[in-house]
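re: ur question from yesterday

yeah so i grabbed the chain u mentioned. its 189 aa long if i counted rite. heres the sequnce exactly as i have it in my notes:
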Amino acid sequence: MTELPPRRKVRDVEIMGALAHPLRAALLRYLMAVGPRTASECADAVGSTASNCSWHLRQLAKFGLVEATGGGDGRQRPWRASVVGIDLGEFADDPATRAAQLAVFGTALGEEQKLTQRFLERVDELDADWRRASALNGYTLTLTASELADLVAKVDALVRPYASTIREDAPPGAKPVYAGFRAFLRLER
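ran it thru and got these structure tokens back, copy pasting raw so excuse formatting
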């Protein structure tokens, strides 16, 4: 198997701040899921205005997270994600960096909750094949920290080749699918 393109390593607190902004995060994830789109198309998808999306796309471009693809101008200019994923690294010892990482994860969690809720609200609209193929599973595992790290790496290796920003051999009928995986030590109240 060929090596997959790497995620963008982000260690800069200012870039993390951009990624923690809910609209910017939604725009980046949308472009990563569906490919190049105009600010107007993004606005429809993320529930904002074209002018607001255009401004935030330019902000993301300053950090090298998205780029204009050429053609069109203003709100009709297509934009695309210039990253295939984000790697924030291990939780930092530095409190400011760790706070920025937590803000990005919090925003991602909020987006995941919105996508899940939207799916649940509209599941009856889906074709039966898509309903059957969907899954909302949770597991409680008994692992060591080393086993957990190994499991996360294996899931990543299994899932990443299907990432919209990476996959070039998608068959007809393939559509963007959200898949989330969380794995962490269960902490009681």
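noticed a couple things. DSSP finds seven helices and five strands in the chain. also The longest helix spans residues 95-122.
anyway ttyl
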